[in-house]
């Protein structure tokens, strides 16, 4: 089933660009380091009413269309990894095309966000595979370039097939999701069992789930947790799904929590140039990843 059948073209992409979702996250979760700085006031001032409407509309669509069946269909399609094969560097070039249709006040292209995240992790002395996770964590956003609407690429992720937590942003929009009328999906545990572990839980479809499966053979397990759950805010910020988590998940979520501030708050105006950074990152990618990745 193509998403285009469900909604009109504009309705597919209510955000001015996919980064607007992350800008909104910074308003929900301001950088603790800048809470008392002028920056915060300015952030709010720059955030126009119309942009807020775009974000709200984005969540309306996301919560309406991310059903259990939708997730199964997307997994069946994308987890075959039969779209193309390319080196990560080509994927980043491909991702940077996303800036083309964005507005002039987007200051960073996708590659810059990835490098700022990975450099902040590297500067804090974390293991090299975590630096690599910083570099590739948003690579799944290539889904946009395969024609997926914004609401099937970015946004907070959440389990499908069980009751929605009111800790998920705009929970009222779940009333529009057909799954709300399916009693099997609306008990607290839904199709799952108590503390079954997140491995057996289906998450809403997006760039996190896609890159997680893509990287499964190559990255140490804590890194895979960072990839799969970095947008699962209702759990890593609010512990809303403890009833599905295993002991191991709880242990591993310490890594997800360690990673999150690097994703949100690593903007660095004095970032080293790509020419300077290139030798390190080429060696890092060669250490863990094959020459070509299957998308
Ligand atoms: Fe992300
Ligand atoms: Fe990110």
TrEMBL record:
Keywords: Cytoplasm, Iron, Metal-binding, Oxidoreductase. It comes from the Bacteria. The keyword Oxidoreductase applies. InterPro entries: Inositol_oxygenase. SUPFAM superfamilies: HD-domain/PDEase-like. Its cofactor is Fe cation. It is found in: Cytoplasm. This is Inositol oxygenase. It comes from Pedobacter mendelii.
